[in-house]
Specification:
Largest sheet: 4 strands, antiparallel
Number of strands: 7
Shape: elongated
Helix content: 25-40%
Distance between the termini: 110 Å
Radius of gyration: 30 Å
Number of helices: 4
Amino acid sequence: MIRVRSHRRSLVRNERGAVLTEFGLLIVPMCILLLGLLDLGYLMYLRSTFQGAINDVARLATVQNPTISGTGTVEQRMDAAIRERMRGLAINATYDVREQSVEDFTQIGKPEKLISDVNRNGRHDPGDCWIDLQQNGTFDTAPVRSGLGGADDVVLYTANLTMPRMFPMAKLLGASPNYEILVKATVRNQPYANQASSPTVCSAAS
């Protein structure tokens, strides 16, 4: 009986294997934390590189007849140049790059400029005249033109990148299975010619 009690006390005091047990309890949260940090670091690096690629290609396109290698339109060659800069980093990625232009930085996010305001309320009403930036005969509250614009125009680039995650964090944390990155760039084209002026249009009085 004494031997049994002594054996039990020795088992209670025995700490062999305790480290392995503690390590087994900690390994799962440690791996999740490590993968999360790697995933976040990769996302930040991917975003920074993508923003840099958009900035570089946008600057190349500010001159007349830009020397961007490839075939097709300037927009198509720009898209190819962005993909080339991201090759090897953004694996199986899809891109959506859009270009819009306005005549001046002051027009970004603002309605077309009124030339005459009949009832002086600061809003467009029948009988008012405005600078038709879109050249569509309609007063626009957010006037932007599709494409790269012309000489001295301001070009707004909006680029989206979608790519499967490199680390298996989506299922563990309920996150999206894809990286989804949105970057923007705004540049002014070089004054290689006279900037095209928009017409003044007046709406019919009511």
